């Protein structure tokens, strides 16, 4: 799993990707003809104005993706964008269960 970089790629993913969501996160997914998995993690500034809080949630989401990369690889290769949609902090275990239930 590698981070997806570049505004053009992220905009393309956001425009053309399929969307599905759960209680705490929303996922935008696009299957690609590549041999690797790329991801983007996003936390809205509107919900968490302090950068420290946004970064903490991003670190948690990246750790969940790193631990459960086998689940993502089984679903195919492509681009993923994980957007945190809850308006307050969530326990790591609850967030982990929620993200795993998406896939």
The CATH topology annotation reads as: Ribosomal Protein S5, domain 2
Instruction: Return the average pLDDT rounded to an integer.
Output: 88
Distance between the termini: 15 Å
Query: How would you characterize the largest beta sheet?
Result: 5 strands, mixed
As laid out across the biggest beta sheet, the strand order is 1-4-5-3-2
The number of helical runs is 4
Proportion of helical residues: 40-55%
The total tally of domains equals 1
What is the number of beta strands? 5
Rg, alpha carbons: 13 Å
CATH class: Alpha Beta
- What characteristic shape results from the CA principal axes? globular
Q: H/E element string?
A: EHEEEHHEH
Summarize the structure.
This protein is an alpha/beta fold and 103 residues long. It has four helices and five strands, in the order E-H-E-E-E-H-H-E-H. The two termini are 15 Å apart.
Report on the structure:
There is one protein chain. The chain is of the alpha/beta class. The chain has a single domain (2-86), classed as 2-Layer Sandwich (Ribosomal Protein S5, domain 2), CATH 3.30.230. It is built from four helices and five strands, in the order βαβββααβα. Strands 1-4-5-3-2 form a five-stranded mixed beta sheet, sandwiched between helices. A hairpin with a 3-residue loop joins β2 and β3 (25-31). The radius of gyration is 13 Å and the shape is globular. The model has no long low-confidence stretch (mean pLDDT 88).
């Amino acid at each position: 799993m590698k981070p997806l970089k570049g505004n053009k790629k992220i905009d393309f993913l956001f425009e053309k990707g399929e969307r599905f969501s759960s209680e705490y996160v929303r996922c935008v997914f696009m299957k690609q003809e590549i041999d690797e998995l790329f991801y983007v993690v996003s936390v809205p500034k509107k919900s968490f104005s302090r950068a420290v809080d946004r970064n903490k949630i991003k670190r948690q989401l990246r750790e969940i993706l790193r631990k459960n990369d086998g689940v993502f690889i089984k679903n195919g290769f492509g681009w993923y964008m994980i957007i945190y949609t809850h308006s307050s902090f969530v326990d790591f275990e609850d967030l982990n269960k929620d993200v795993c239930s998406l896939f």
